[in-house]
Each structure stands twice: as structure tokens, then as C-alpha cells.
Specification:
Blueprint: H1 3-22, H2 32-49, H3 51-56, H4 71-89, H5 98-120, H6 141-151, H7 157-168, H8 170-187, H9 199-203, H10 229-265, H11 278-290, H12 296-321, H13 327-334, H14 345-362, E1 375-379, E2 390-392, E3 402-406, H15 419-426, H16 431-439, H17 446-450, H18 454-466, H19 468-471, H20 477-502, H21 507-518, H22 522-534, H23 541-560, H24 566-574, H25 581-598
Parallel strand pairs: 1-3
Antiparallel strand pairs: 2-3
Helix pairs in contact: 1-2, 1-4, 4-5, 5-11, 7-10, 8-10, 12-20, 14-15, 15-18, 18-23, 20-21, 21-22, 23-25
């Protein structure tokens, strides 16, 4: 976004806030109209500032650009959130109806959390938490651009022209990100070299000899019928030129920088607490991801308790299979015997689709209202390597389905007994059901339909895995072992993430701990630990969120007794969109009170 457009968006939001709290009396409560204008201003600012996000949710006004990642743009966004927090902290919301009061509370929590993270990043010259690190094995333009292409609209010549303009912006984005990584190197703020060593290989997929082999050329193979042959030829040639002359050289420069400059100078240690931000930086990340004030010690101890509890359940699961041997021998057997693995990617995809169809049939028993947006199952891209399976969101406005993206890149690391749990987590009733439902909640301000809080979103998906027992899944003891393995994985994350970043654990110790307890493969656990090293704190949110949701379910059942309706409870959980956990708790307490009143 240009400086002028950013300034206009900032001034608009601050003007709305200022009129709400300072005109004419400082104590005047914000009105409904002012609150709605505030939310609209924030939403428009976010779409302008993050055009990739706008594309992903179906707003195609900015499909011709990439977000500005220069140091100046990062500093501007830092100033924006500081101003937003300051203004929101002074707002009197007492006159607002409950939905808008909650929306203001959600936006205030987000502004405070980002402003606090920006303070933790203060030792960097531009001092802001804004897409850092810019390039890692988990994220970066080399992985994000193909995903963005998949979310883009290609229905007209104008759509293709906008896409070409976006591709022409890639070299500038890469130069900005190299500059930011140089700043990090100078400040001692880098990724650990061992964890990030796979990035150059990932970049191979972008450094192609033939432009038509580029992931970004895909849209020029599938044309809408409205586009004439002559235009197709013109646009294809333009794409080939952009990829050959701009994209490939830019990605080659990034790859060379990573190999020759970044990795040799990257830090050897793995703990976030040793970065210039210190332990306060890691605590800020824990607060951000969990939306709580739990300390590293509290999270670590919670993890140890969960690991002990799930260990006992896994032992019982092993016994149920009839296996004669130790737990370690069973884990070796289930991760090495060929009968537990597919040999063809298409067979694994068919297996996932069969599970998904069976889950779909169970959903009406568990939800009073279901989202209308469909979902599908497809393979992850090869360049994503051993990254975990994930969900790619859809768009109800344009009719783009959501997708569970399955990793079929190395079938020998993907045992069949994990598959039921993965569908429940990534598709339904996990990420797809929750995020698609949020997008359809027309009463919510738009920013709330698309806002993401990791503890809520991942906590919900982990809770969704646990519904498998009630839905009739995990009847095969190996599938049950797989479910417990994944629950154990999330419990281990509490121990390992804090162990790595607050208590001096080595990478090797963390990997060994994960393998010992989870029952999953060493290759998977190595990738997992490298993820925790590169994205500190994020992995702790899953269990923290799941345990809160389970505690709220127990509270609601105890309060309502036989009148407790699980279907209505589940919609009460997800029909406010993603929320910070303390806001979610207040919402469920209000729902319990409402249910009591309705049933009298």
C-alpha cells in the first residue's frame, strides 16, 4: 500500500475513534453507529494493507499487488497498532449492545497483543512483529505464492492481468525480505541454522529452467471459455516472460542469499529466550498464541500432567490390539510394517475421501446448524516436503470450496492409522466446519468472521478430534492409537516448546522426547520440533485451547443437567467466530444463563 493510502486508512480509523471518545466529552460512550464505522474502517485498512489476505477471503480489489514488506511499511503498521490500542483503551462501550461490545473487546485484545509483541521486537531497527521471520521452511513467499495463486480468481482477462501485475511485484517483495533478514543478521535475530536448513531445497521448485514448470504458471493451463484463443496466447507469453525474466531470477537470488549469507551466519542455539528480546519476547509469544497469561512454567507443568495421563491411555490402546511386546516395539512395528502404509498417492487420497464422507453423515447429530460451504480433499504440493497436513480455506461468496490438503509426498512417513484423526482435525468437524461457519455469520462485523485466534481455532480442531469416539470412529484399536498419538503430540508440544525456549532443551532432546511419547515417526517428529524452533509458542495453543473447551462443556453440562443440548452447545462455541479464550468463557457463561431462562 502506498504511504498516502495507509495514512488515509489510519486517519479514518483514528478519526472514528476520536469522535467516539473525545467529542464533545471524554466520557461520552461510543454509539452503535460509531462502533460500526470503527469496525468498517479497521476492516478496510486490513484489506488494503494485506492484499494477499483480501484475495484469500474473496475480495478481489487488490489482486494486482502484494503487501508491502519494506522496513518503512512494517514501521507504519507498528505505529498504526500503537495508535489503535491507545484509542481503544479509552473507549467507553457501556452503551453498546452485547454483540458490538464483544466485537470491541475482541479488537481491543488484538491491538493490545500486537502492540505488546511489537515492544518485544523493539531491539530490531524497525522493531515490529510483522511476518517475522520472512522466509523459513514453514512460511515465506516461495510457499505462500502458490497458495495465493490457488485462492485467486481467474474468470476474465482482467483477472489474468491483475495476476501478472502481482507476479511482477515479487522481485520487490523478495528484495525487501532479504533486507529484513540482513537487519536480523546484524541484530543477532535469526532463525537457528539447523532448523531452517531445508529452505534452499524448497526454493528449487521456484528456480525452474522452463517457465511453464513454475507453480505460478498453472492458471495459464486452465482457461475459462469466455477468454478468446488470441488472448490466451498473449497472456501465456506474458506469463512466461514474467516468470523467466523476473520471478526465477528473484527466487534464485533468494536461494543464493540463503545458502551463502543467511545459513552460515544463522544462530546455533534454538531457544527464543536467547534472542535480543530475551525471555520477555517468548512470554509475549505465549500470551499471543494462547490468549492467556499462562507462564512458560505453568504450560510446561500442564504438559507433563497431560503426557502422563495420555501415556496410560496409549498403553491400554496397545493392549487392545493384542500386540505382544513393549510400547517401543509396538511403535516400531506400526511405523515400519508395510501393511500400515499406502503405496500409491491416489489410494491414500481415496482413503481420506471415504473417511470424510462417513464423518459428514454424523455431523447433524452434533450441530444444530451446519455451514453450507463444501470442502474437498487434495494432495499437498511436492515442494512442501514433509510439512504437516493442513486446511486451505474456501470462500462462500465466490463458491470456492475449502480443502483438506493431504501430504502424499512420502507415503512411508504417513501411516494409515493417523487418517481418521487428521480428517476430523483439518476438515470436519474441525477447521473447515468452524471457519466456514464463521464466514457465514452475517450478524458479525466482517473482521470477526475472518479473525483468527490460534488457541480457539486449533483448540477447536483438537477438540473435534476427540469427538471421534462419540461419532463412532476409532473402533479399530490402531486408529484409536493414532488418535491418542496425536493427542499426545499436542501434550508433548506443551513440554517441548517451553523446554526448548525457556528451559534449555536441545533439539536432539526434544526430538527424542517426541518420538518416545507420541508413537509417531522420527521423521515427523524432527519436522515438528523444527517447526517449534522456528515458530516459538504457537504449538502450545492447541492443548490450552482444547482443555478450555472441554472445561466449558463440563461446566455447561453440570449447570444444565439433563437439559444440556450438545448440538446447541457446539453452535454456541463456534457461532461467535474465533475468540480469545477469556471472551469465549464469558460467552458460554452467558449462553448457560440464557439456556436456563429458556427452559424454566
Amino acid at each position: 500500500m502506498s504511504v498516502i493510502r495507509f495514512a488515509a486508512a489510519l486517519m479514518l480509523t483514528c478519526a472514528v475513534l476520536g469522535s467516539a471518545v473525545a467529542q464533545p466529552r471524554a466520557s461520552a460512550p461510543i454509539t452503535t453507529e460509531q462502533a460500526q464505522a470503527l469496525f468498517d474502517a479497521y476492516w478496510e485498512w486490513a484489506l488494503h494493507e494485506y492484499p494477499e489476505f483480501a484475495t484469500a477471503i474473496g475480495d478481489h480489489r487488490y489482486d494486482d499487488r502484494l503487501g508491502d514488506q519494506s522496513a518503512a511499511a512494517v514501521a507504519r503498521r507498528k505505529a498504526y497498532y500503537a495508535a489503535l490500542r491507545s484509542q481503544l483503551d479509552g473507549v467507553d462501550d457501556s452503551a453498546l449492545p452485547p454483540l458490538l461490545r464483544t466485537s470491541l473487546q475482541v479488537l481491543r485484545q488484538r491491538a493490545r497483543a500486537i502492540d505488546r509483541l511489537n515492544e518485544a521486537y523493539g531491539r530490531l531497527p524497525f522493531g515490529a512483529f510483522d511476518d517475522w521471520p520472512p522466509v523459513s521452511q514453514m512460511d515465506g513467499i516461495h510457499l505462500g505464492l502458490p497458495q495465493l495463486t490457488a485462492s485467486s480468481r481467474f474468470t476474465s482477462v482482467a483477472d489474468y492481468e491483475a495476476y501478472l501485475a502481482r507476479l511482477r511485484a515479487v522481485p520487490s517483495r523478495i528484495r525487501d525480505q532479504i533486507e529484513r533478514m540482513e537487519v536480523g543478521l546484524a541484530a543477532g535475530w535469526t532463525l537457528p541454522g539447523e532448523a531452517a536448513s531445508g529452505v534452499p531445497k524448497q526454493l528449487d521448485a521456484q528456480v525452474v529452467a522452463d517457465p511453464r514448470d513454475s507453480p505460478e504458471f498453472g492458471p495459464f493451463r486452465n482457461w475459462p471459455p469466455e477468454i478468446e484463443p488470441a488472448e490466451r496466447e498473449r497472456l501465456s507469453k506474458a506469463a512466461e516472460a514474467v516468470i523467466r525474466e523476473q520471478l526465477v531470477p528473484a527466487f534464485r537470488a533468494l536461494q543464493r542469499f540463503y545458502v551463502e549469507r543467511y545459513l552460515p551466519a544463522a544462530r546455533a542455539g534454538v531457544d527464543a529466550s536467547s534472542l535480543p528480546g530475551g525471555p520477555a519476547y517468548y512470554q509475549a509469544l505465549l500470551d499471543w498464541y494462547t490468549t492467556t497469561t499462562l507462564t512458560a512454567r505453568e504450560i510446561h507443568d500442564l504438559g507433563l500432567r497431560e503426557v502422563a495421563r495420555i501415556d496410560a491411555a496409549m498403553e491400554a490402546s496397545v493392549a487392545a490390539t493384542g500386540f505382544k511386546g513393549t510400547r517401543a516395539e509396538f511403535q516400531h512395528y506400526t511405523t515400519s510394517d508395510p501393511k500400515f502404509f499406502y503405496t500409491r498417492p491416489e489410494d491414500m487420497l481415496a482413503g481420506y475421501r471415504d473417511i470424510a464422507k462417513r464423518v459428514d453423515a454424523e455431523l447433524p447429530r452434533f450441530f444444530a446448524v451446519l455451514p453450507r460451504l463444501p470442502y474437498g480433499v487434495r494432495a499437498m504440493r511436492p515442494e512442501e516436503g514433509d510439512n504437516a497436513e493442513h486446511y486451505s480455506g474456501g470462500d462462500p461468496l465466490t463458491g470456492r470450496a475449502g480443502y483438506f490438503e493431504a501430504n502424499v509426498n512420502d507415503l512411508r512417513t504417513r501411516p494409515r492409522w493417523t487418517m481418521e484423526t487428521l480428517v476430523l482435525h483439518e476438515a470436519v468437524p474441525g477447521h473447515h466446519l468452524q471457519t466456514a461457519r464463521a464466514q457465514e455469520l452475517g450478524d458479525l462485523p466482517r473482521f470477526r468472521r475472518f479473525m483468527w485466534f490460534t488457541a480457539f481455532g486449533e483448540g477447536w480442531a483438537l477438540y473435534a478430534e476427540s469427538l471421534g469416539d462419540e461419532m463412532g470412529f476409532y473402533k479399530d484399536p490402531y486408529q484409536k492409537f493414532g488418535n491418542l498419538s496425536f493427542e499426545m503430540l499436542r501434550a508433548c508440544r506443551l513440554v517441548v516448546d517451553t523446554g526448548l525456549h525457556a528451559f534449555g532443551w536441545s533439539r536432539a532432546r526434544a526430538i527424542d522426547y517426541m518420538v518416545e511419547h507420541s508413537g509417531l515417526t522420527r521423521a515427523d517428529m524432527t519436522a515438528e520440533v523444527d517447526r517449534y524452533i522456528v515458530v516459538p509458542g504457537q504449538a502450545t495453543a492447541y492443548k490450552v485451547g482444547e482443555l478450555k473447551i472441554k472445561a466449558l462443556r463440563a461446566r455447561a453440562r453440570a449447570a444444565l443437567g439433563e437439559r444440556f443440548d450438545l448440538r446447541r452447545f457446539h453452535n454456541a462455541l463456534i457461532d461467535g467466530g474465533a475468540l480469545p479464550l477469556e471472551v469465549l468463557e464469558a460467552q458460554i457463561d452467558d449462553w448457560i444463563t440464557s439456556e436456563r431462562s429458556a427452559l424454566k
